[in-house]
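Quick note —
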Amino acid sequence: MNQENALIIFVRNPELGKVKTRLAATIGEENALRVYKELLRHTRDITQNLPVRKLLFFTGSPDPAFWPSEIYEPYRQEEGDLGFRMEKAFEQAFAEGGRKVIIIGSDCHELQEENISEAFEKLNSHKAVIGPAADGGYYLLGFSALNRSVFQHKTWSTDTVFHDTIRDFDREGLTYAVLPVLHDVDEGKDLNEVLRSLIYG
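Predicted structure written out below.
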């Protein structure tokens, strides 16, 4: 394992009524929870074999049977908006010896192990890497050195986040690589065949 490559994974504890609230507005809270549990399973499956350090930043209490501590190092997310919480997670990963640090969430069912491996490769020749989401946000962000500006002055969970982040890269003079556009699962229209089958059979 390359300890200098660190993958931050942001997750929430799967609790009824507290996850996928926009999705729950159209398919109900129980179905939204079922979908989120599948997203967590997918995230675990595509990350557990990566030869990198894995830092699980959670809200709530992670299930140690689902996220074994010998694979995923547990950390509690800081209080604050998403940008502040991500900045603090990156800060910790770099402070603990990370040379290439990438963050993902648990919202992208299209994300694969190969995408994450490619992102780490891109950081060999770029200062930053980003995976744009179809809704205007991003599903992956990575750096070879901490850059705080990208976590500030953003309207999170809107369609401006990706473009605003690219502007930060340009303003800071960072070389960056852009991965393929993928879809996050936030609303009913985002459900793919696998996720629909959990609800509708």
